[in-house]
Amino acid sequence: MPGELDRFDRLLERVLEALPEELSTLLEEVPLVVDDLPDKEICLRMGLRHKLDLCGLYTGIPLTGRSVEHSGTLPDVITIFRRGILSAARGRDGEVRDAALRRQIRLTVLHEIGHHFGMTEEQLRRYGYG
């Protein structure tokens, strides 16, 4: 598993480097945190049965919902979960190929960025990021 996590981190760097400049700039303002798995509180709040079911999480107030009343709130954060993404990228044969892992990392990062911009799950699915 340690080798797989190192590979994940290396591919994440490649995905982030390939993002359009507008999105890369956004990630300078909204931190991207990498964790292995969501904690028990997140799983309970989201109604998850298995920790591996969650690939990413946007925490904050979407740009479309902000007002002057939100000053002093905690900063936005995008968290991606290594083991959830690895699980989602695993093929039927149990292998995680680099191309599938890069695709799943990119999808997860773009999905959570979409939430930052105020997109709903339905909108994200419609645009292919669900």
Largest sheet: 3 strands, mixed
The stretches of 5 or more residues where confidence is low (pLDDT under 50) are none
CATH class: Alpha Beta
Please tell me the total number of domains: 1
**SS-based structural class?**
mainly alpha
What's the oligomerization state? single chain
Distance between the termini: 27 Å
> Helix-strand pattern, N to C?
HHEHEEHHH
In short:
With 130 residues, the protein is mainly alpha-helical.
Walk me through the structure.
The chain has 130 residues and is mainly alpha-helical. The chain has a single domain, classed as Zincin-like. Helices cover 51% and strands 10% of the residues. It has a three-stranded mixed sheet with strand order 1-3-2. The longest helix has 19 residues. The radius of gyration is 15 Å and the shape is globular. It starts with a helix and ends with a helix.
Q: How is this fold's topology laid out?
A:
Blueprint: H1 2-18, H2 21-29, E1 32-35, H3 40-46, E2 56-59, E3 77-81, H4 82-89, H5 98-116, H6 121-126
Parallel strand pairs: 1-3
Antiparallel strand pairs: 2-3
Q: Keywords, please?
A:
single chain; 130 residues; mainly alpha; 51% helix; three-stranded mixed β-sheet; Zincin-like
